[in-house]
Amino acid sequence: MDLLFPVVSTLHTLAAVVWVGGMFFAHFVLRPSLVNESPATRLGVWSHVFPRFFAWVWIAVIVLPATGYAMVFVDFGGFAAAGRHVEVMHGLSWAMTALFAFLFFKPYPALQAAVANKDWALGAKHIATIRRIVTTNLILGFIVIIAGVSGRFWG
């Protein structure tokens, strides 16, 4: 039992780093690097990057709640003892998961189809939707991280 919390906490943190860090990289590094490329190149890169990244996000989507609930119920004894910051993290994590699931099942397949059909205008529309969702999730992810790091100091 003494080893459970460090292992679960580490897995939880690594999963969050993969997801939020990946969104940060996509938004602030990859996207600006592709701005001057042709639509075919830009959308082609995204259509090759997303499957790899989304596989890791799905792993995070499974690991985060599993490890989060383990910490809440095994280590803290439930939500009442875990603190307000854990409730904030919990709620926002489900919002992030819902947004990702929507992204994965709606605009992402539409983007892939547009790229396969070389419909760059339609692809640009779908990538704009994906960008808005990723931006929202990145902001939510930062809030979750802030809550996780600073929450024990909340009054």
Task: Walk me through what this model shows.
The protein is mainly α. The chain has one domain. It is 87% helix and 0% strand. It has 6 helices and no strands. Helix 1 packs antiparallel against helix 2, helix 2 runs antiparallel to helix 4 (84-105) and helix 4 runs antiparallel to helix 6. The longest helix has 37 residues, at 39-75. The mean pLDDT is 96.
List the domain count as a whole number.
Answer: 1
**Termini gap:** 29 Å
Q: Output mean pLDDT.
A: 96
The percent range for strand residues is under 5%
User: Which percent bin holds the helix content?
Assistant: over 70%
Query: Can you summarize the main beta sheet?
Result: none
Give the radius of gyration: 18 Å
Apparent shape? elongated
N to C succession of SSEs: HHHHHH
Number of helices: 6
